[in-house]
Amino acid sequence: MPDHKLIKWEPIEDLPDNFYIYEFTEKSDILTLIFKSKEKSFNFKIVFNGYFTYRNTKYNSLLENNLNLPRQCGLFILENSPYLKWFHYVSFDTCKNNKIKHYIIKATNNVVEILDCDTPTIELKED
Question: Would you say 18 and 39 are in contact if contact means Cβ atoms under 8 Å apart?
């Protein structure tokens, strides 16, 4: 039984059940993800400033098995994260004093995991 805990992160009210990554950019230590939904005219952007590391996986089922992600899209934080443990190991614990969170964004087309100690900025966008 895994010792990590998946917590639903709800920074956006009425988040659609299905959304996809429309645009994914990494520039000058800023990771920007723009999402769109086919269900309704609902677009949003999440920006991570100064993140430590991220990974983007197209094969959702691989992560679903390991992290017990639900089938529907969503935003999550993973406590006691294996990814964060790995990061501390490879960085020789130099960032151990930072309060790093493991953010997980599960879209219909990708699962993106980001390690960051700052809360990302979120913006709702007009279609």
Answer: yes
Domain total of the chain: 1
Instruction: Identify the domain containing residue 115 by its residue range.
Output: 5-125
Question: Distance (Å, rounded) from C-alpha 96 to C-alpha 82?
Answer: 14
Q: Which residues of the chain have pLDDT under 70?
A: 1-2, 59-65, 126-127
The strand pairing partners of 126, in sequence order, are none
Q: How far is 95 from 31, CA to CA, in rounded Å?
A: 19
Give the Cα separation of 96 and 105 in Å (integer). Answer: 23
Whether 63 and 57 have beta carbons less than 8 Å apart is answered as: yes
